[in-house]
Amino acid sequence: MLFVVSSHDKKGSTGEPTGYYLSEVSHPWEILKNAGYEIDFVSPKGGKAPVDGFDLTDRVNAEFWNDKVYHEKVEHTMKPSEINPNDYVAIHFAGGHGAMWDFADNTALASIAGKIYENGGIVSAVCHGPAGLVNIKLSNGKYLVDGKKINGFTNEEEKAVKLENVVPFSLEDKLIERGAKFEKSGLWQSHVVTDQRLITGQNPQSAKAVGEAVLAGLQ
Length: 219
What we know:
alpha/beta; Rossmann fold; 10 strands; 32% helix; globular; Thiamine biosynthesis protein ThiJ; DJ-1/PfpI; glyoxalase III activity
């Protein structure tokens, strides 16, 4: 499996740090690693990925962070140019606000994800990770999300964290613009939707359930 994490470390003009959200990597990672899958890490720039939501009182976060093999992988992520999509059965776009700045326009990542999907693999994303889905086009010229049920960080959640005027676009609006049937629950409620081989979760609270849905899809 391939996990995509952000290389972007600042929330726009606020100067506040961001990156990938640790639990949105660790919670799906635990489910999939325990099922026997090996996970590689890629980021738009490669190298050390900036981390947000760094809470080691969360048992799963601590387990991931203290795993020597995976700590090494996330501190030395691969570049998109080093990835062969044929090596992977699934790709997971982890969120964290950083994703809003460097996922959507990364054509190399969109191409990798499109190929994995068209090879029969699973594409998943959680929270702001669906920013990586907005420009994925399939070989028929349609957007991957077009006509599919999807979710992600909602407009209401963006307003609740007071970043609706900081992020470069509204994730919910952009997905709808691409033809997605956007579903949502209340603030911070776990919500995961599966449509064909596309699996999306609304927020950090949905990360473990995304991992479980990916595993179910792979099996």
